[in-house]
Amino acid sequence: MLSTKTLGSDALAFAQTKNLEVECVDFIETSGLAFNIELINLSVFDAIAFTSANAVKYFFENNRAAALIKDKQVFALEGKTTSGLLTRGITTNIQAASADELADAIIKSKTSHAVLHLCGTLRLPVLGDKLKKAGFDYAEIVVYQTIIQTGKKVNKSYDAILFFSPSGVEGFMEQNNFGGETVCCCIGKTTAHTLKEKKNTANIILPEQPSPLSMLSAVSNHFQNHHQS
């Protein structure tokens, strides 16, 4: 199996318990960007939204991050984004599986009117588009950049491939392909949609939760069921 990003030691250990052999190749790289909190009128915003774990990571590298988020509602994607906030003592008011569903939940809750979105350079526009259309004040702070590694080529076939983001799909598909027997596990619907656009015959499965462990479980269960049938 190929993972299109490096997995943590916990995920690799879990894969071993499932008898899954995993090779990791990073098809994206991220790095933090300097951002000036003082340029944002914080009093305007009553909520902060995070749509990636990297946004959490790089945002909190700023020494004024805790002051920015204090007394604000926090909206975030489920999985590593939410858990990254929790490890910093921050609980989320609204969680969702995708930016699309997060926007719908924010609008439906009617608890906020102005959202500041902490994000990366390759963020999808869906959150901002939906909130602005619904009459919300919306602004972004870009706290990191994503660099797609388009030159990496793998010279073997895999039974399964793990995709963690639309940009990871872009990086992999630039130089690589896969056959119809390959199982593609995408971390969420947005990533799956991007892969389907690139290869409409892709055999895609989704995990129960947007996390590496859940993705590995989904692949293991798929192979077990396929073997039994």
Characterise this structure.
The chain has 229 residues and is an alpha/beta fold. It folds into 2 domains: 2-27 and 152-228, Rossmann fold, CATH 3.40.50; 31-147, Rossmann fold (3-Layer(aba) Sandwich). Helix content is 37%, strand content 22%. It contains 9 helices and 11 strands. The protein has helices spanning 9-17, 53-59, 65-69, 80-86, 99-109, 126-133, 166-175, 189-198, 212-228, and strands at 2-3, 23-24, 28-32, 47-50, 73-77, 94-96, 114-120, 137-148, 160-163, 183-186, 203-205. The strands form 2 sheets. The protein has a 6-stranded mixed β-sheet with strand order 3-8-7-4-5-6, sandwiched between helices. A 5-stranded parallel β-sheet has the order 2-1-9-10-11, with helices on both faces. α1 runs parallel beside α9 (212-228). The longest helix is centred in the C-terminal third of the chain and has 17 residues, at 212-228.
Query: Would you identify the CATH architecture of the largest domain?
Result: 3-Layer(aba) Sandwich
Helix amount, in percent? 25-40%
Strand content: 15-25%
Q: Report the CATH topology name of the largest domain.
A: Rossmann fold
Query: How would you describe the shape?
Result: elongated
Q: What structural category characterises the helix and strand content?
A: alpha/beta
Distance between the termini: 21 Å
* SSE series: EHEEEHHEHEHEHEEHEHEH
Mean pLDDT: 92
Low-pLDDT stretches are none
Sheet of most strands = 6 strands, mixed
Classified by CATH, the class of the largest domain is: Alpha Beta
Strand order of the largest sheet: 3-8-7-4-5-6
Count of domain modules = 2
- Give me the number of helical elements: 9
Radius of gyration: 18 Å
